[in-house]
Amino acid sequence: MDLKSLLEFYRKHTVEVILPFWFRALDLQHGGIYTCFNNTGDRLVSRDKYIWSQGRFLWLWSKTASMIEENRLPGDPESYYEHLCKTADFLEEHVFLENGNCAFVLTRSGEKKEEKPGQGFDTSIFADCFMAIGLARFAGLSQDQKRFDRALELYSSIRKRLATGAFRSEPYPVPEGFRAHSIPMIMLNVAQEMADAAQELEHPDGGQLQDHSLTYMNEIMDDFCREDCTVAEMLPGDPVEEDTLLSRHINPGHTLESMWFVLHTAMKTGSQDTLQKAGLISEKTLQLGWDFDFGGLLRFVDREGGRPRGRRSTSSRYEELILDSWDMKLWWPHSEALYTTLLAYTSTGNEKMRAWHDKIRQYVFKTFPNPDNSIGEWIQIRDRKGDPLDKIAALPVKDPFHILRNLLLLIDLLEEEG
Question: Percent of the chain at pLDDT above 70?
Answer without folding.
Answer: 100
